[in-house]
């Protein structure tokens, strides 16, 4: 029986380099969430040379904005949001040490180029599987931009979050490879 | 000047006819309940198409994704979580019978209050903000409200929360009459191709053909309320729906856009007569979390 491929966060470089587009992995460790509004703020802070409220080096960013938690639960539903909206900000974050991104949907050519240049991976979570993903989240703390509510930056401890390596650090892209394989035109 | 007595007799029956009174408090409670219901589950029609998709999907990754989607529905029930974190903008359809009389307050305010309550009590995400300042309104209002007046004395309320992953991939084009049926098919197909993995395939595609710009868009959205997979009663349109479903599934986009044979679960097309110079076509994409709940008051 095939053993589960565990991927740790913050990123361990040997693990990252061993990932290939199409691999199924299970993420374990500490990740941060950031989506549209938080990305815009981080981007401008970086451009202005100002300090960030969070560390980017070797981090894993999850593009997500969760539902509020019901009493007794750690978090509400927390599936991925569409990654392409963060494309414009991503190359700069990769330049500053970001190593992995979790989201859904394809990325731009510029992002993929930057991923190859800086050695980073893009992992796909299943869009709409918000409850299933929430059950993998064991601890949540708001760490920055709390005024943004669901768009705040949260640090999350996750255990065995199922992900697909959609784009690896060599630029192999399942969003291109996959559809080509199944198109009947 | 006196009415001739025969004319006066004509009006008496109208004055005696009773109107059904519906108090806004009932509307608030109902809207709140429907918001929560809609966000916590999908209908059996959608579930059945997802199960069929999982059986038919040729891609192993695609099958696994569909399995996770179905697992998610079960986990959501067990843990009492919304099926997707994007609990959307509340799109509320009101079908008001001509003989209904709303009492106790403003109807639209009641709908907004129902959404406010539902999104707080249901632990749903507050995803609505000012379009330019981007300041969150804090309570997922205002709702989007569509109103139709119909015969009868009932008020039908449908709440269809719309997530924006799919909404953002929707398109409208004012085609030329010379673009014809082929132009329509090309526009629908290209819209789905350009969307790729972004709207969380497998999708349901709502299409409005004809009318005016806003009528086409409204028809495309309303088409999404149909029981998933149910064809338009007009055989010509039903054939077009079937053709487009095949064409979309032949693109190979697949579940989550990662490749596969099931990209769409259904295509629903609505039509309306239009102007001799025009051919508006709107495509409203719905993700697999096709959520709507209704009540009759």
Task: Describe this structure as you would to a colleague.
The complex is a heterodimer of chains A (185) and B (297). By secondary structure, chain A is of the alpha/beta class. In chain A, 26% of the residues lie in helices and 26% in strands. Chain A has helices at 13-18, 36-47, 90-95, 109-118, 130-134, 174-182, and strands at residues 6-9, 24-33, 60-62, 100-103, 121-124, 137-144, 153-167. Chain A starts with 5 loop residues before the first strand and ends with a helix. The model of chain A has no long low-confidence stretch (mean pLDDT 95). Chain B is of the alpha/beta class and 297 residues long. Chain B folds into 2 domains: 19-40 and 83-162, no CATH class; 164-292. Chain B has helices spanning 5-16, 24-40, 44-56, 60-79, 107-121, 164-167, 180-195, 213-223, 235-249, and strands at 20-23, 89-97, 100-103, 144-150, 155-162, 171-175, 203-210, 264-272, 279-286, 293-296. The radius of gyration of chain B is 22 Å and the shape is globular. Chain B starts with a helix and ends with a strand. Chains A and B meet through helix 5, strand 7 and helix 6 of A and helix 4 of B.
Q: Specify the helix fraction band of chain A.
A: 25-40%
Task: Extract low-pLDDT stretches of chain A.
Answer: none
- Overall mean confidence score, pLDDT of chain B: 95
Overall outline of chain B: globular
Q: How is the quaternary structure best described?
A: heterodimer
The secondary structure category of chain B is alpha/beta
- Mind telling me the C-alpha Rg of chain B? 22 Å
Count of helical regions of chain B: 9
């Amino acid at each position: 029986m095939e053993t589960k491929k565990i991927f740790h966060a913050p990123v361990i470089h040997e693990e990252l380099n061993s990932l290939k587009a199409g691999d199924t992995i299970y993420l374990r460790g500490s990740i941060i969430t950031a989506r549209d509004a938080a990305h815009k703020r981080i981007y401008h802070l970086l451009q202005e040379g100002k300090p960030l409220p969070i560390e980017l080096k070797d981090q894993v960013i999850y593009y997500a904005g969760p539902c509020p938690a019901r009493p007794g639960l750690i978090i509400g539903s927390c599936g991925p949001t569409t990654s392409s909206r963060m494309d414009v900000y991503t190359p700069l974050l990769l330049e500053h040490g970001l190593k992995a991104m979790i989201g859904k949907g394809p990325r731009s050519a510029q992002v993929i180029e930057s991923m190859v240049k800086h050695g980073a991976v893009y992992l796909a979570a299943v869009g709409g599987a918000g409850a299933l993903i929430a059950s993998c989240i064991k601890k949540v703390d708001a760490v920055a931009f709390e005024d943004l509510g669901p768009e705040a930056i949260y640090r999350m401890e996750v255990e065995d979050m199922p992900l697909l390596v959609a784009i690896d650090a060599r630029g192999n892209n399942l969003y291109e490879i996959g559809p080509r394989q199944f198109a009947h035109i | 000047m006196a009415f001739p007595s025969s004319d006066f007799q004509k009006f008496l029956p109208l004055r005696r006819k009773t109107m059904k009174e519906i108090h806004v408090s009932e509307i608030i409670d109902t809207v709140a309940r429907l918001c929560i219901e809609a966000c916590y589950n999908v209908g059996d029609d959608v579930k059945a198409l997802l199960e069929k998709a999982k059986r038919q999907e040729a891609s192993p990754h695609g099958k696994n994704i569909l399995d996770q989607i179905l697992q998610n529905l079960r986990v959501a029930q067990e843990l009492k979580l919304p099926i997707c974190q994007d609990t959307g903008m509340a799109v509320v359809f009101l079908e008001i019978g001509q003989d209904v009389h709303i009492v106790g307050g403003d109807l639209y305010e009641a709908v907004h209050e129902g959404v406010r309550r539902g999104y707080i009590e249901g632990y749903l995400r507050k995803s609505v903000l000012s379009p330019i300042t981007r300041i969150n309104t804090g309570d997922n209002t205002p709702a989007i409200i569509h109103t139709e007046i119909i015969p009868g004395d009932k008020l039908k309320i449908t709440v269809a929360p719309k997530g924006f992953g799919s909404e953002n991939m929707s398109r409208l084009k004012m085609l030329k009459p010379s673009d014809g049926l082929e132009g329509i098919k090309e526009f629908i197909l290209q819209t789905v191709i350009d969307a790729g993995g972004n709207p969380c395939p497998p999708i349901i595609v709502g299409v409005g053909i004809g009318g005016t710009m806003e009528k086409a868009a409204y028809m495309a959205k309303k088409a999404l309320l149909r029981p998933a997979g149910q064809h338009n009663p007009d055989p010509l349109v039903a054939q077009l729906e079937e053709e487009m479903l095949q064409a979309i599934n032949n693109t190979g986009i697949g579940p989550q856009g990662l490749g596969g044979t099931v990209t769409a679960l259904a295509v629903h097309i609505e039509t309306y007569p239009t102007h001799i110079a025009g051919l508006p076509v709107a495509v409203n994409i719905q993700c697999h979390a096709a959520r709507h709940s209704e009540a009759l008051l």
